[in-house]
Amino acid sequence: MNACPRVSILVISYNQEKYIREALESALAQDYANLEVVVADDASRDGTQAIIRELAQRHPQRLKPIYNPQNVGITANSNIGLRACSGEFIAFMGGDDVLLPGKITRQVEWFAQDGKRVLCGHDVDWIDAGGASLGLRTSDLVPFHAGQGAAGFIRNGTPYTAASVMVRRVRIPTYGFHPLLPVVSDWKLWIDVIGTDGTYGYIPGIHAQYRRHGGNVTARPSWKVTRDVLMTAWLSLWHLRGRYLKDWLHYFLVRPLRKRLYRRRRG
């Protein structure tokens, strides 16, 4: 690996004028030198694009803006931004998330220790619309784990919030985020990147903030989210030729049962 490999931070945005400045400034302020920030805006109708243009003028060498002429949706917009990324490593965040200082440097250092490492995450603080802590971390919901091969990412669900993930670009499939998953496509991408032989893990500490508000896609139950989760299972079984079937059965059957039993005991 190069001593200072290029890193792309992919930011997707849509009608996030309240948050986009803080999000982009947190990415631009990272202390890692060989860095580009790619922001793909999905035809926002508020003041989001004006803020992006202002920051792009101030940081022309570091910020690469993309303005979709029409709204194409989350996955298509993510792939438009992904194709514009030139980094050996790609980190992800939404236009309402916040990266904390030193995140990119620490993750690149983690990758440098082993060429088989393909995906790195970390813990994330959850904040509300105003930026106040919700007193919740991602690790409170899903125990963090490391491993090789995608079994753990399937059995327990992804342990890392998207804003914490950095991947090795060469492991991304040609289709990027799968186009048959229009709303929730990041889980499938992580499974694709890890595959059967990739090593994944995490760096200690909290290195980003995930903003929870009414505009989040997963803020409330939705048939679109459920559809994409089921389609993720089907697509991964197809692409991996039936491998990890037991892990998918565990996710859909055993995991929910254990959650119910745990809640009953606590109640």
How does this model look, in words?
This protein is of the alpha/beta class and 267 residues long. Helix content is 37%, strand content 23%. The protein is built from nine helices and ten strands. The protein has helices spanning 20-28, 48-58, 74-84, 103-112, 138-141, 151-155, 186-194, 223-239, 245-266; strands at residues 7-13, 35-41, 63-67, 89-94, 98-99, 117-127, 133-137, 147-148, 166-168, 199-211. Strands 1, 2, 3, 4, 5, 6, 7, 8, 9 and 10 form a ten-stranded mixed β-sheet that branches. Helix 1 packs parallel to helix 2 (48-58) and helix 7 runs parallel beside helix 8. The chain is globular, with a radius of gyration of 18 Å. It starts with 6 loop residues before the first strand and ends with a helix. The relative contact order is 0.15. The model has no long low-confidence stretch (mean pLDDT 93).
- Helix/strand order, N-terminal first: EHEHEHEEHEEHEHEHEHH
Shape: globular
Helix content, binned percent: 25-40%
Low-confidence parts: none
- Per DSSP E runs of 2 or more residues, the count of β-strands stands at 10
Helix count from the secondary structure assignment? 9
Q: Termini distance?
A: 51 Å
Bin the strand percentage: 15-25%
Give the integer mean of the pLDDT values.
93
Largest sheet geometry: 10 strands, mixed
The class by helix and strand makeup works out as alpha/beta
Radius of gyration: 18 Å
